[in-house]
Amino acid sequence: MSQKIRKLQVQGVHHITLVGADRQTSIDFWEGVLGMPFIFDQPNLDDPSQGHLYFDPGDGRLITIFTSEDRKPDRRRTPTDPGCVHHIAFSISQATFWQVVERLDARGIKHSGPKDRGFMDSIYFSDPLGLTIELASYRFEPPEGCRHADVMIEAHRIRVARGDNHIQREHLADAIELLVERTQQSLSTSRTAADPYRN
In order of start, what are the domains of the chain with their CATH numbers? Predict the structure, then answer.
């Protein structure tokens, strides 16, 4: 008798662990460049010869780094073979996004410059070990009670229905309007657009 196949439902990213170089390089990059508080420090419980540093990226999740004083930074690009990490993206505000170029330039860190992604702005650069880091800033805030993912799926549906190539601001605005209508009540008999300036 075969058993029913069932999902293992995840509910978010718990943490991401990266293999780092020495301890100080990790602290200087993750806290000293990206501003992530260094919150926890212990040995790697699977290999006590390594350290295990924990950083808070701002949402209460964790970025952890295995460190060893025997490893030195190597700025060559990390592998992008199948199964490897291509890049890690971190969320930043629009206020911070528009300071990134100036602040990376002040450190002499090469970067991509701002990239228009339609629904967000992005900039890319490498950590001291060659891992590509993306700083991403959404161009919208979801309606109360909704998540960014809720807006994205609705914007995607709108984009596909219109035959557009990729999500743009108009798709986002229309998705937000749809979600507000769907999730927030109104006493109006009609929620269609109206013109109060007509003669």
Answer: 15-72 (3.10.180.10), 74-139 (3.10.180.10), 148-183 (no CATH)
pLDDT tens, the chain, 199 aa long? 678 999 999 999 999 999 999 999 999 999 999 999 999 999 999 999 999 999 999 998 999 999 999 999 999 998 889 999 999 999 999 999 999 999 999 999 999 999 999 999 999 999 999 999 999 999 999 999 999 999 999 999 999 999 999 999 999 999 999 999 999 999 999 999 999 998 7
Helix/strand/coil (H/E/C) assignment for every residue in the chain: CCCCCCCCCCCCCCEEEEECCCHHHHHHHHCCCCCCCEEEEEEECCEEEEEEEEECCCCCCEEEEEECCCCCCCCCCCCCCCCCCCEEEEECCHHHHCCHHHHHHHHCCCECCCEECCCEEEEEEECCCCCEEEEEEECCCCCCCCCHHHHHHHHHHHHHHHCCCCCCHHHHHHHHHHHHHHHCCCCCCCCCCCCCCCC
